[in-house]
Amino acid sequence: MQVGFIGLGHMGSGIAANLIKAGHDVTVYNRTRSKAEALASQGAKIAETPGDACGGDAVFTMLADDNAVSDTVYGDGGILASLKKGAAHISSSTISVDLSRRLAQDHGKAGQRYVAAPVFGRPDAAAAKKLFVVAAGQSEAVNKISPLLDAIGQRTFKISDQAEAANVVKLSGNFLIATVIESLGEAMALVGKAGVDKHQYLEVVTSTLFGAPVYKTYGTLIAGGKFEPAGFAAPLGLKDIGLALEAGHDLRVPLPLASLLRDRFLTLLANGGENQDWSAVGSLAAKDAGEA
Amino acid sequence: MQVGFIGLGHMGSGIAANLIKAGHDVTVYNRTRSKAEALASQGAKIAETPGDACGGDAVFTMLADDNAVSDTVYGDGGILASLKKGAAHISSSTISVDLSRRLAQDHGKAGQRYVAAPVFGRPDAAAAKKLFVVAAGQSEAVNKISPLLDAIGQRTFKISDQAEAANVVKLSGNFLIATVIESLGEAMALVGKAGVDKHQYLEVVTSTLFGAPVYKTYGTLIAGGKFEPAGFAAPLGLKDIGLALEAGHDLRVPLPLASLLRDRFLTLLANGGENQDWSAVGSLAAKDAGEA
Amino acid sequence: MQVGFIGLGHMGSGIAANLIKAGHDVTVYNRTRSKAEALASQGAKIAETPGDACGGDAVFTMLADDNAVSDTVYGDGGILASLKKGAAHISSSTISVDLSRRLAQDHGKAGQRYVAAPVFGRPDAAAAKKLFVVAAGQSEAVNKISPLLDAIGQRTFKISDQAEAANVVKLSGNFLIATVIESLGEAMALVGKAGVDKHQYLEVVTSTLFGAPVYKTYGTLIAGGKFEPAGFAAPLGLKDIGLALEAGHDLRVPLPLASLLRDRFLTLLANGGENQDWSAVGSLAAKDAGEA
Amino acid sequence: MQVGFIGLGHMGSGIAANLIKAGHDVTVYNRTRSKAEALASQGAKIAETPGDACGGDAVFTMLADDNAVSDTVYGDGGILASLKKGAAHISSSTISVDLSRRLAQDHGKAGQRYVAAPVFGRPDAAAAKKLFVVAAGQSEAVNKISPLLDAIGQRTFKISDQAEAANVVKLSGNFLIATVIESLGEAMALVGKAGVDKHQYLEVVTSTLFGAPVYKTYGTLIAGGKFEPAGFAAPLGLKDIGLALEAGHDLRVPLPLASLLRDRFLTLLANGGENQDWSAVGSLAAKDAGEA
After folding, report:
1. Does residue C260 belong to the interface with chain A, where contact is any CB pair within 8 Å?
2. ipTM associated with this complex
3. How confident is the model at residue C235 (pLDDT cuts 50, 70, 90)?
4. Which superfamily does B2-162 belong to?
5. D98–C contact, CB cutoff 8 A
6. Is D170 a catalytic residue?
7. Mind listing the pLDDT tens digit for each residue in A22-31?
8. DSSP per-residue letters across D195-218
9. CA distance C134 to chain A (A)
10. Do the chains contact at C190 and D172, CB–CB below 8 Å?
């Protein structure tokens, strides 16, 4: 298929490369042109504007946040103005449920298609075609672009006809991880004050009940108390929890754990955590417990 | 070694059987004698009173709660009165930190030893010698009875010289599981109201970030909404969260997630959940969200 | 002074009337013209557009929410385009801290003045000139329009040079009231289940520690369990708590009580409370406690 | 009437003096005899043991906590062993609901009466006969000792036939005060970071919505940040919130505000607040917000 790709960060670059490898005809756009050139060497054409990447059957966006996506879609010469009738915008960014809903409506009015397709996985998984893709939108639209999703991940979950449902699922993922961080933080504060070594404790926990890598990864960071440099910075954690709460607000779903986490992130950011990894939230329980 | 074993429930029977298999000389006691007889056929001697099980180098207790352990230790003809100087009481029950601390003191005053050795694992793991044992107490005492712990589990973690530290670790385990239940309950309430099928959502979650069996097990119960018969009844969940909070109180460690969970358990029990599995706590977020 | 007044709801009508009584030359604007006519009979001139009300030394806005204020200020022929250099926009609506900050900036750039002056008091207090006015902004601007504030309330608090600080103070007021509602709701759930009559309990509470009318007013509603018709509707309560949380977010101030209240409001709205008084939040604790 | 009085602290001394003034025949007991002597000069007889104070129609206890009351009632030569059939134990201490229930049962079995009669008011109110008395118990018993309650307070509320209901009401009072402390703490953290002077803010709040002295008293302490010497020490605050939560546990009433307060008290005590006034809980929100 003929496909555009906008947003060549750590995730986007790997995904676009896999589209090329699968034999698709890919046109890439990135605000900083140098990243586009790296893909050109793999066979991509380079677009000079977002609109220039919209000439084919579909265009992916993999951008930082609501503002970036909104500018790219609604701006002069943006996606909405450039995409052909019947062609699809595949939105893989972590954006708000509200924006995703509006995108579905506005593309629909323009005779275009919209598929929300956020992914689970880190940059290395993106490069290795190991992503999990959560796709939602009108089934005809999703089916038509399925080969593209198959080309970028190990498995695609089609979870709803409502595009924004995929974004809710994506947001719930970071929410679940954040609850793991907080729960380990509290547990370690407790056993730590009882005199137990936190690393040894983590070994008990991960050997027995909680083998999932997320426990080992974040538990090790919390036990070590080393939160810089950030893998995923605290302000981004606050943003995603905020998006989950916003979704809960709109759907009328109270999320007390998310509320607690939001307060934790604010406490962290108010006390010097701007540049720390979001797992630093897991250090607050110990601080409340008087640990130096 | 010559060892007594008091408390032959689902867990205790399997553990005692493994002590016999390992060649130890085991005397068992159970309030309901029939369970002791089952072990007699495997080679155990039967004691008529708790005290009769205390003639050897060590005695295990694997009982329901603080009251049961307290009665067995402090009652007439109980362990404290019967155990030889230098012999050890190995306490594997899930009891309060406070009681464990008192047991350590009182056995110490009597010239006896005390090792807290709660276990992680279910009855089938106990029977299969697959338990993880968390042991704490004076290192000489722990070392001396190590062969017994090796006989009942796949691995022993020696985590502190303070016996009660092992109980804190054990309590933290059920606390962590309960946070998983609550977090899945909230996430499913959110995605459910966004129109996503809960079972499919769980498949996304467990395929990607959360492969640990605890997510699959409890997530399936919550998605299915079927909480009876109870594998682990809600009142027991409340009890264990209460013990964790009590430990936090005594050590001056605030545990906001545990506080939230305690309130959830009370809500559940106030609304007909007495006989439900503790995972029913994971249904409350959806109820708050207005799900029928 | 020559002054405009935009927004003649229950509050605005009383305030505008007091400006007239104090001898000021008042031009009023309201989207529904009939309300303006009522004031014309008291001596006001009627403006046909918001901009027509901006010819004098100052213009008040007393509108429903951020959107209404934003439209009136930034719309074609709005306040920003119409107000003379040196004249002041006095904003008495309950709006977000963020909008208030932007208004201060934009009026400043246009050579205009901006004073945030939200009020405490109900419509009857507005009519009786019994309001308390919380004013903030550059001191010269505040001082210049002080006679107007003196004309509408019993006391003016000048609390900051930063206009938006007044909005924070206003939002904190509804936050404090909401905490009273929740605390009474929990206390009554507790004593109610202990067999105490809630109305008698309220008499104990208000006779002893809590004489403030807010306890009597909301306590009576909660004890009676009658939440319709709404004096202040639940969705408005959610809105104001949301604005307080938003202010906390921007200032990096975690507000755990506000988080808890937000979840309560969502629970209420998800379960049929859209048309109920916000004090219905005080019924949720009893519901969680299993009260029919 | 012939009446004993056990516990002559700040509260008890004032109450006992009023019983004497009302013409009752009062025998007092206090562990530290000197306090009893002060009352002897006002006409009281001095008892050498708690039991010696139990010869009349009724005996009051006004003691520090559950342990003190329990020892005095159940100890050798205690109240239970000494009180005549038909005579009443009037319990005015702030004790647990559970102990109050047990006292009602045990006195009942002994043919004695039990009235729970905790009071609202500080020592100066006790001395001035301005207390509010919350009484509960079998109505015949309460009626019989009513003249005694009339002698010590300005008003008696008879709120239930179940004695322990009075204790629930008493505990709810300190819970409500603690919520005021926390809510003011959060509100001040918010407005403080917005640049508003906290004392001036408090004046706004208490002039408008919250005239009750409790707001002025605690707000002034929080705004001033001076928490020593303690009027009511933080550990006592934790104790009372703990008793409220315990009552909620037994009655199956979740109290999320009380849970939050408990965590706040633990945080305070873990960070050097052992000797501070309980209003220091109101400083924690500002600390979380990064205020120096």
Report:
1. yes
2. 0.96
3. very high
4. NAD(P)-binding Rossmann-like Domain (3.40.50.720)
5. no
6. yes
7. 999 999 999 9
8. T--HHHHHHHHHHHT--SHHHHHH
9. 27
10. yes
